[in-house]
Amino acid sequence: MPELSEYRQRFNAYQAELSEDEYLYLTGRKSGSDRDHIQAEYSDLFRLSAIKELGRAHEEVAAWRETERAAIRRLKAFAIEGFVAGQAAEVTSEIDRYKGRQQAASRANPISVSTDLFAERIEIFQRSIVSTGYESFSDSRRDLKACDPAALATSAEKLLSLTENRYVSGISEFLPAAAGVTIDEAIDADLDHLDYYTSFDAWFTSEKMKPLYRELFDGLGFNAERQTNLSLTSIDETARIKDSLCFPVRVPDDIRLVAVVAEGQRAYRRFFRAAGRAQNYAWTSKDLHPEFRFVTEWGDSALLDCWAGLLAGLVTEDRWLQGSLGLIESTVFRDALRLIRLVEIRRHAALHLYELEMLESDLSKKSSSIYVDRMQDALKVRYNSSGHLAEISPAFSHGNHLRGVALEYHLREFLRTRFGSRWWTSRKAGEMIIDLWNTGQRYSVEEMAAMIGLGELDYEWLANQIV
Description:
A hairpin with a 3-residue loop joins strand 2 and strand 3. A 3-stranded mixed sheet has the order 1-3-2. It folds into 2 domains: 143 residues, no CATH class; 315 residues, Neurolysin, domain 3 (Orthogonal Bundle). The N and C termini lie far apart (51 Å). The radius of gyration is 22 Å and the shape is globular. Helix 11 packs across helix 17. The protein has 467 residues and is mainly α. It contains 19 helices and 3 strands.
């Protein structure tokens, strides 16, 4: 393994090259992705020898130097994730080829990715994590990222239980009007359709989207148009890019926010989500180690999800709707979006439980029925098992999303209490948010909550806020 300083430099360069490649490919600026070539060029970062050296480097740092110890743990987690993914690279490539054919196929002759391929990949992941010295993915998360997926599962179950009655009554009333089916007739695709709720889309014109972005940050005390390190470009929806996205090419010097400018509340929410991530990256301190500036592919995305949700949540704020869109009578709209958000949160809670169960045990033929049972119990509509293993991520991404939602709701309540119900118009609120953005990805959402003074994230309180 290269020296620690050199490893950091190569880590930084690797993340930049991957992000720029993804940006150029998804926005149509080049015909193919160079991802495989980039990963091969930086394969030294993911060797078992590198993992062992990072482990030794961590042990040699004095206990009182916790920031440096945390930084090395972050690098070790990155190296392990890259090693595990690399062991399954051949299977992943085959899955990607199937997906490419799937996109090109007609609806009359669909091509499905074999469940056996996903099962084979997960089994490779499970074997590979053991070879790095950990018993399981949960074991590595607890050690390297101070996050316990099993403890989070208890919170997810509590969240599902406490929101169930409100969810059932709300979705039973909403589905016939929004999707034309009763809850007994509905399938999972009907829930996906709700995300496109169009009854109020006339208020969300494409022409207003970017001006409202500038207005938001003007209210928080800075001019988004003068941010030389953050570029905002518009693009039409394509086969490669359907939602607004953020590309952190070099953090914080080159952040690219791509807006899919379109009419409708969904387009606005997706744009503000991408903007929240982009601003977090753009205000990240240059003085941080690179591993505290990026979220890696299998990294802890909870904090980014918090910032994304905080800004997207403005679309459900009565005072924002009145002041920025002129929408006065918004109760029906806000109730609909809160229910759509509840669908999303319950889905992630159920998927975290399923993901944990599958990653922590031997895969069995019952995995599809376990998936169907989990999803139907959480969302109360009929599910099929198609693609159930594709939902599984060793990053515990569904759990990360839940943790991000928890901080988002706690932080929003804090901002309202401290800066008023129109906190997004407060320069003092903007100063505080920028201070938090400066810390990049240094802290977990749990650490961030403690640092702000919010205490421990309370999922029972969160359940009450959601409904």
